[in-house]
Design brief:
The complex is a heterotrimer of chains A (about 280), B (about 300) and C (about 300). With about 280 residues, chain A is of the alpha/beta class. Chain A has a single domain, classed as Rossmann fold (3-Layer(aba) Sandwich). Chain A has eleven helices and ten strands. In chain A, the strands form two sheets. Chain A has a six-stranded mixed β-sheet with strand order 6-7-8-3-9-10, with helices on both faces. In chain A, strands 2-1-4-5 form a four-stranded antiparallel β-sheet, with helices on one face. In chain A, strand 1 and strand 2 form a beta hairpin. Chain A is globular. The two termini of chain A are about 35 Å apart. Chain B has about 300 residues and is mainly alpha-helical. In chain B, about 75% of the residues lie in helices and about 0% in strands. In chain B, helix 11 runs antiparallel to helix 12. The longest helix of chain B is centred in the middle third of the chain and has 37 residues. The relative contact order of chain B is 0.14. Chain C has about 300 residues and is an all-alpha fold. Chain C has 13 helices and no strands. In chain C, helix 5 packs antiparallel against helix 6 and helix 6 packs across helix 8. The relative contact order of chain C is 0.14. The chains are: A alpha/beta (about 280), B mainly alpha (about 300), C mainly alpha (about 300). Chain B: One of its GO terms (biological process) is transmembrane transport.
Chain lengths: ~280, ~300, ~300
């Protein structure tokens, strides 16, 4: 298997406070696989993701190499980078509720994005969007296209982001805590969509989460981050079964304790099974 | 008081507090500091330039400008401060009543505030002066009458926010007296908010009140007041423009000191503001909107 | 949307009534007897009690208080604000031209203020923390600490007296507008500029900007989105600029001897000419209420989220 994205010595620091957020990260994403980045908030997961897409605030500086299909993303011009964003690298952010311009209809926004990357007519765009939205189980997609973000729920907006990704057909999807802001049921549904997304598009994925339960379901490989450093890496199974680093052990054991307690209380996940 | 400690580290804030303190002291002990009798007419010294004896020169009646400037602190700054204090007090009392007890009192007080705030402040002040007649004390009354509603509104919001805090709620449970809760828990919390709004409206109040004096609606001759001095200077503006300088600069310095202080207080209160990144933007925006409406 | 508009306008009517009632009470609170003021102003040598009673009747003051208010408000709706105590002329004939003059000044200034503060606010927000941003903010801070009448006098002295470029006072040619408009702009755009700037910054750090960038939208398009959203917040503030400036040109008008509402009202206050003061307050308060309604309507029109409120 070949690696699609290779990050070498990525260093990120705040130019105002001189504080180093990520000292030197090196990792790679295999083609077609899903890499999960796990860690508590403030461990540098999100910043790493945004660094790959070069979307961090201007006060955050980054050095290192980010190789994607023979190009170092870190040395590309802003214009070249913009062409990659969306079309080849697609970001799905945590909070669906605030991800869309509040005074812009969903359909208008989707059209704006898609005309950026394709030479499609209005009708073609509409068709593609509606197909994609149907595939993520959004009901009455043409109605949704004529709605404002505040008229929809967080889970729906999250799925619209996934639908947009389906239309864009990127090679890498970076999902930054996509399920964190959702309630348990929507979380489950959205997670299912992500699984399906990988199957249909065959794309690679970087999945950021602090929820080990979610990670276990979707990831092939796991990176554990703590205070900006990668403390553990390996296949999901290996990390979960035999965590090497103390911090990972801590994460896994607390996770187990919580889920055991949960299972004990709920007597299995009957609720989820019903859905 | 963490706020004050933070403030000390802020050079501009520290400097402006010193300017304000010195101004207030000069005003309180004006007769000691004023080198001459501010109202003494001396026609032989008309428009005299600055000299060793009269540091800032003399005005159209030969009066000592420096002395008039110093005695003018009283109406221009001290009385404004007093009027501000009174309206903040009224506003705080009503704001606490409304925010703490909620219910009917809240509705009534807020209705009153809304009605007061639906009048443009400046026009309201003019109207009150029109009814009561010309004079500094009437201007001050007018300002107290129009400003309290605004303070009440903001202090209520602040009280509401803190009254929801758990430990304030817990204090209510064992039956501690309301007044004690307000005094012990709520007042210290809201105090910093009150300080910020009070200091931020001080600057605009000084400007507006001196503006009324400038129009001749305020203090009457021969008493000295900065706006009044500018009004007198204006009459000879074409021949003696330099007379405009001293009182104008005095106003600019004091008002900027108050504005800087309010800025520093705000930062000291909410250190996140200084880094400019994350902040409760919606909050600051809405207060800014109110600020605009009050002008 | 239509329903919202109607509701909002209906809501303004009770507010107008309250405002007018307060105005009426305010004037009646005066410690002076209007009849006496009228007679004094007309230069009647000896004021007898019969004369007072007769004048009171002429002024309708013998009726019950509420009836007086109703009479007054009905008359006001027909633009009959009574007669000036001092000159005896109908108030409307004095007020109308002054109002138009002030309105001209206000509209032009508001226009300049809005354009300038949107321009500078957007520019500063996009260059947050850089030299341009910091210096503009510093200047605006400094200008808001300056008494506008002082600045006006200094500018008159420099441009009109020293350089002899512009007229010192009065109203006539277009040149007469230049200085007053500059002064009003300078003393007000600071606040509005800060509103635009902070609402731009507020939007700049929103998630939707990040997501739009992540979708590969060009920066120019994203800025358009941001500007549109931040102007939404500012529009209501801008709407209120018109009545606020209308009510606070008093000092500037005085400096430039502008024959507007401000000059008229100051003269009325000094001469204790109550009908004029009353009409002045009523008109401006009404403008305030109406513009407030207008700003809410525009806001709802631009911001779909708000339409369901009220």
């Amino acid at each position: 298997m070949t690696s699609l994205l290779e990050v070498r010595n990525l260093k990120i620091w705040d130019s105002r406070t001189e504080k180093i957020i990520v000292p030197a990260s090196t990792f790679q994403l295999t083609k077609g696989s899903c890499l999960a980045i796990v860690g508590e908030s403030g461990s540098g997961k999100s910043v790493t993701c945004k660094a790959i897409m070069r979307l961090n605030n201007s006060s955050l500086q980054q050095t290192g190499e980010i190789w994607f299909k023979g190009e170092n993303l870190n040395t590309l011009s802003e214009k070249q980078m913009r062409k990659k964003r969306g079309k080849q690298l697609c970001l799905i952010i945590q909070n669906g509720m605030s991800a869309f311009d509040p005074s812009c209809l969903i359909g208008v926004f989707a059209r704006e994005v898609l005309t950026q990357h394709f030479d499609w007519g209005r009708k073609k765009i509409e068709e593609e969007m509606i197909n994609a939205m149907e595939s993520v189980l959004l009901q009455e997609p043409s109605k949704i296209m004529r709605k404002y973000p505040h008229q929809l729920s967080g889970g729906m907006l999250q799925r619209i982001m996934i639908a947009l990704a389906i239309v864009l057909k990127p090679e890498i999807i970076i999902a930054d805590e996509p399920t964190t802001a959702l309630d348990v049921i929507s979380q489950y549904e959205v997670l299912e969509q992500f699984k399906k997304l990988r199957e249909t598009l065959g794309c690679s994925m970087i999945f950021v989460s602090h929820d080990l339960g979610v990670v276990k379901k979707i990831a092939d490989e796991v990176l554990v981050m703590k205070d900006g450093e990668i403390v553990e890496r390996g296949s999901t199974k290996a990390v979960f079964l035999a965590p090497k680093h103390e911090y990972t052990r801590f994460l896994v054991s607390t996770r187990l304790a919580v889920s055991e307690h949960f299972n004990h209380v709920m007597k299995g996940d009957a609720v989820l099974a019903e859905r | 008081m963490k706020m004050l400690l933070n403030l000390r580290q802020d050079k501009i804030g520290f400097l402006s507090s010193i300017v304000i303190f010195v101004t207030i002291m000069l005003g309180v002990f004006a007769p000691f500091f004023a080198p001459h009798d501010p109202n003494q007419v001396n026609m032989s010294l008309r428009y005299a330039p600055s000299s060793m004896e009269y540091l800032l020169g003399n005005d159209h009646l030969g009066r000592c400008i420096l002395s008039r400037l110093i005695i003018g602190i009283r109406p221009s700054v001290l009385w404004v401060l007093a009027a501000l204090g009174v309206s903040v007090l009224i506003g705080a009392a009503l704001g606490f009543l409304a925010g703490y007890f909620r219910g009917k009192i809240d509705t009534v007080i807020m209705r009153m505030c809304d009605t007061m705030l639906s009048f443009p402040g400046y026009v309201m002040a003019l109207a009150i002066i029109g009814v009561l007649g010309v004079g500094l004390q009437n201007i001050l009354i007018a300002f107290i009458l129009i400003k309290w509603a605004w303070f009440a509104r903001i202090i209520r919001t602040s009280v509401l926010q803190y009254a929801e805090l758990d430990y304030v709620k817990f204090a209510k449970a064992p039956g501690i007296k309301d007044l004690q809760i307000i005094y012990k828990h709520l007042f210290p919390l809201t105090f910093s908010d009150i300080a910020v709004i009070a200091s931020s409206s001080m600057g605009s109040m000084i400007l507006q009140i001196s503006g009324f004096s400038f129009l001749g609606l305020g203090i009457q001759a021969p008493n000295a007041e900065w706006g009044m001095m500018l009004n007198e200077a204006r009459e000879v503006m074409f021949t003696r423009p330099e007379l405009m300088l001293a009182p104008g600069l005095a106003i600019v310095i004091v008002v900027s000191a108050f504005n800087f202080l309010s800025d520093s207080l705000q930062v000291a209160l909410n250190p996140a503001l200084s880094t400019g990144q994350k902040r409760s933007k919606q909050e600051s925006l809405s207060t800014e909107k109110k600020e605009v409406l009050m002008k | 949307m239509a329903i919202y508009m109607i509701n909002r306008i209906l809501l303004a009517i009770p507010m107008l009534l309250v405002v007018s009632f307060l105005t009426f009470i305010l004037i009646n609170l005066s410690p002076l007897d209007p009849a006496e003021v009228v007679l004094q102003a007309q230069g009647v040598p000896v004021i007898t009690s019969e004369l007072l009673a007769q004048t009171r009747q002429e002024l309708g003051m013998d009726k019950p208080f509420l009836m007086q208010y109703v009479d007054w408000i009905i008359a006001c709706l027909q633009f009959d604000f009574g007669h000036s105590y001092v000159t005896g002329q109908p108030v409307w004939s004095l007020l109308a031209p002054a109002f138009v003059n002030t309105l001209k000044l206000t509209v032009i200034s508001s226009f300049v203020i809005i354009i300038l503060s949107v321009l500078l606010g957007v520019l500063c927000a996009l260059n947050e923390g850089k030299l341009l941003d910091q210096s503009l903010r510093g200047i605006s801070f400094f200008l808001t600490s300056m008494p506008s009448y002082w600045l006006a006098a200094l500018m008159v002295w420099y441009f009109s007296v020293k350089l002899d470029l512009l007229p010192t006072s009065g109203m006539g040619s277009l040149q007469h507008y230049i200085l007053p408009v500059i002064i009003i702009t300078v003393s007000y755009s600071g606040i509005y500029f800060r509103v635009v700037r902070s609402s731009m910054l507020n939007n700049l750090h929103q998630d939707y900007v990040l997501y739009s960038r992540a979708c590969g939208l060009p920066e120019r398009r994203i800025i358009l989105h941001i500007v549109r959203n931040s102007l939404q917040v500012s529009v209501s503030v801008f709407c209120m600029a018109v009545p606020i400036i209308l009510g606070s040109t008093v000092v500037i008008e005085n400096v430039f001897a502008w024959p507007g509402l401000g000059s008229l009202s100051v003269r009325a206050i000094l001469g204790r000419d109550f009908p004029i003061i009353q009409a002045y307050v009523l008109i401006l308060a009404a403008a305030f209420v109406l513009f407030n309604a207008l700003s809410d309507i525009i806001n709802a029109w631009m911001n779909p989220k708000l339409r369901n409120d009220l």
